[in-house]
Each structure stands twice: as C-alpha cells, then as structure tokens.
Amino acid sequence: MAYKYESVVNVIGHINPDTDSVCSAIAYANLKSQSTGEKYIPKRAGQINAETQFVLKHFGVSAPDYMGDVRTQVIDIDVQRVTGVSQEISLKRAWELMKTDTLQTLPIVDASQKLLGLITIEDIAKSYMDVYDSRIISKAGTPFHNIVETLDGDMIHGDMDEEITSGKCLIAAANPDLMESYIEKDDIVILGNRYESQLCAIEMGAKCIIVCDGALVSYTISRLAESRGCYIIKTPYDTFTASRLINQSIPIRFFMKSENLITFGLGEYLDDIRDTMAKKRYRDFPILDWNENYFGMISRRSLLGARKKKLILVDHNELTQAVDGMEEAEIIEIIDHHRIGSIETMGPVFFRNQPLGCTATIIYQMYRESGVELTEKIAGLLCSAILSDTLIYRSPTCTDTDREAAEALAEIAGIDTEQYAAEMFAAGSKLSSKSPEEIFYQDFKKFVANDLVFGVGQITSMDRQELVAIKDKLLPYMEKALANHEVEMLFFMLTDILQGTTELLYHGNGARELAVKAFHLPEDTKQIILQDTVSRKKQIIPAMMIAAQE
C-alpha cells in the first residue's frame, strides 16, 4: 500500500516576514479553505517579529509553521507503506509476505516501530543456497514455534516459545545401531514412524524428534519423551520435504542487514538523496517519519512521481524576497501590492496586484467578493496588517481604500484603531534588548536594478531615542551583513513614525553616492536624513531604482 499524497497548497509571505506578510497568509489560507473546501495552509518564511507576535497573541491566533525551503521532499512522493515485521518471524514467513506483495525488501522493526534492519530476496536465497552447517538452527536461536509453523506441524509435547541454543539437525535414515553413533544430546532428529528410531533418538538425549508423514506417535513414545524432556513435533510432510524446509524456520534476524543502514527522512529533499541512491546498489530504501520511526519504503523509481509543492505567494512577487527553492515549486497564485518583480512561472497563474498600501486590504476585498464571513480574529489580523503597513495611515502608500478597509475591519474586531495601533507599535519597537542581527533582519528585503543587487532593511519606532541607540548597534553590524549577502550595497531605514522622517544608513562601495543621487542631496552629504519619508516601497525603492538605472 502506498502512502497517499495529500494535495496541500501552502500560502506564504516573503522572507523576514512583517505583520502584513504573516497576517495576510493566515487570512488568505482561511478564505481559500472556506470557499473551496480544499486544504490551504499558512506558512511563514522566517522569524516572527515582536510586533507580529503582539498581534497574534492579542487575537489568540497561532503562528504559522516555518517553511524555509520549498524544494520537493520525500513527503511529496508516494512512499510505499510496506508493513514492518518482527525480527523473530521465519525466513519462510518473510518469503511468503514478499511474494504476496511483490516486494524485494522487507523492513524489520521493533514493537515501537524503530527500524532494526532489512532483509532482501537475495538474503533469503543465500540462506537457502549457501548454508551447509547442520548447527545453523541452534546458532540462530530458532524458537520452536518457527519450526512448527514452517513445517505446518503440531507440537505434541514441548514449549513452543523455547529457543534452540545447542545441538544439530539430522535425519534418522539408518538403523538404530548406527544412529547411536551420530545422535548427540540436544539434537533435532527428523524421522518417520519407526518405533525403534524414535526410541533410540529419545534415549540418546535428542532435544526434539520431528515425526513425518503425519504418522501417529504411540502413547509409550509420547510418555517416554515427556519424561526425558524430549519435544515431539508431528508434520504432514515427508522426510525429504521436512529436511528441506526446516532451515527456513530460522528467524530473519540471523540474516538481516542491521548495520550501516541507509535511511531517509520524510523531510529530506530529493536533491540531497538522489546522489546517495545512485551510488548504492540497493533497490529499496527505508523512510523514517518525523519521530525517527519506520514509515515506509521508496525506490529510485519513486522519485519519478515527485510532485512540486503548490504555493500561493502573498505580499511579494520577487525571487530575492522569496523562500529558498522557489524554482522547484509550482506557484498557482500571487496576491501583492508591490511592484511586479522577477518571479517567473511555468504557466498562467492568478495574479492580483493592486496599488494599495497593504496586501491585507486586497484580501479584505476578496472576502467581501466571495461572501465568506469575516470572523473577529481574521478581521483583527487584517486590520493590524493595514495599520502596520500604512503606519496608521501616515504612509504615502496609504489610500482611502486602505483606511476604509481598516476601519470596517476594526469594527468587526472590536478595536479602536488609534489606541490599538499605538500598543502594537510600542510592542514592536522594544528593540533595545535585541541583537544587531535580530534588528537588521526584522524587515529586510533584496532588490535588483539592472546588474545591481542591493538590500534595504527598515525599523519603525515612535521613540526617537530608541532609534539613536539602534543606529549605534547597526552601523558596525552592516559591514558584517554585507559580507554575508550577494549584494553590492546595504541600506537601512530608521523611521520615526511620529516625525515622519527616516535616517538612511548605508554601507558598500558606491552606496552613499547612490543615495545622494537618488534623493538629490548635496554631494558632500554624510548623514542622510529624509523628511516626510516613511515608505520603503513608494519613496525609497523607486528613487533608488531610477538612480541605479541612470
């Protein structure tokens, strides 16, 4: 039986997510699930900042799970759900299971589904063809119930669960006088219905006699065997067949491969396992679940049925801002309010892009268009995103449509926009205890203009002194950050919400010159203070793009 791949669409925002990116993903996944009846799951592509944490906690909503890479994983293919077996089952039983289900490899597990080993058809063939040791049954610690099962027999006397630990296996084909010379204590003796042979084997200390052809065992022999501690098994097979089958009673643990097993996890990426699979001669490979328990089996052929992850992108449409592995994913929708960027798709997709201050405003419109009811929680999330992205309507990106949407959502959520926004921004601006790295990546995006790749981060605060303290932390860190990115320049916006100003920090060859050119500043400008500037999307990036292209 194959693991049934569940068709899921992940709704995800940009890396270093802000409140709009996270809240829009949650709200749009809910809208799609409600309107289609299919499964849409919100995801996040990075750490959630303090402001967004406040929003989620305020409305009692769990943070989306992290998704840092959207390449195809093992979980995206059909994993063969081969049932694991106990290491105590016989070779014959293992062979029957493999034949019934046309398997080449059988996984061996313990009671808690931990993988113990593997056995293949080749291993079983070798056990039958290459073993000439008459003591192999005892060396393998074979339990008597395996012998009874393998020979389709009945145990007339003895302990079915006892393991054989000594003695050899032989056929009593000679007369009793000769038998006395080769039967030893604890041997297993295969014989027919000859009374003398049975008696001789018992008297020589045999551990077990196997009576073939379904022959009756006399009362005298049965009582004598019981008194001497000799077990009796009766089988319908003749002596030749019984002797041929008995080695198949050996437990598979004796022949299984248990060391240096090559396993893969459900979360591993196919790119990472292909090379390993190609270098090994094995036909099948075991898969472990998230708890390291056995899950199923895959082969090289399984990779041919790999499915790309289905994604809906919200609040971004540029490859530099997207989660890793985007080239391998299937993008089915994009909902955004930024400029149209660099992401390419294999085919047509639903793309809704509007010149509004926030993606959440677009999603609010889609709720109204679809007739899906807005709950208090969803309304609160969408309202929070709009207030955040528009800086409480102070950003030049804010439109009347954004303001109207936020006020309508606030009424549903039961909040006062000014009071709530002040609390939200205050929670998000408590940055003094954070490291420079945490501050830098709280809201950081990359952009491309011709051959120039540059990054722009932003922090907003209602406390001017806090911004001064952050500046002292960030300036030395930006040199390190530049070395960690494939960018030529880095910029960082310290935005004072109340004053409506931004101080633009810069680092990298030509960074100061680009900013001076973009904002028409005197050429000897060192400290860049931009009045009436709070929007990266509408005020900073367009000016820099034009300057870079010129």
What does this structure look like?
The strands form five sheets. A six-stranded parallel β-sheet has the order 3-2-1-14-15-16. The chain has a five-stranded mixed β-sheet with strand order 6-10-9-8-7, with helices on both faces. The longest helix has 21 residues, at 464-484. The mean pLDDT is 91. It contains 19 helices and 21 strands. The chain has helices spanning 19-36, 50-58, 91-100, 121-129, 136-139, 144-150, 176-179, 195-203, 219-228, 239-245, 270-279, 359-370, 376-389, 400-413, 417-428, 436-440, 464-484, 511-518, 536-549; strands spanning 9-12, 40-44, 65-66, 105-109, 115-120, 154-157, 169-171, 188-191, 208-211, 231-234, 264-265, 284-288, 294-299, 310-314, 330-336, 350-353, 444-449, 452-461, 489-496, 501-507, 528-530. By secondary structure, the chain is of the alpha/beta class. The protein starts with 8 loop residues before the first strand and ends with a helix.
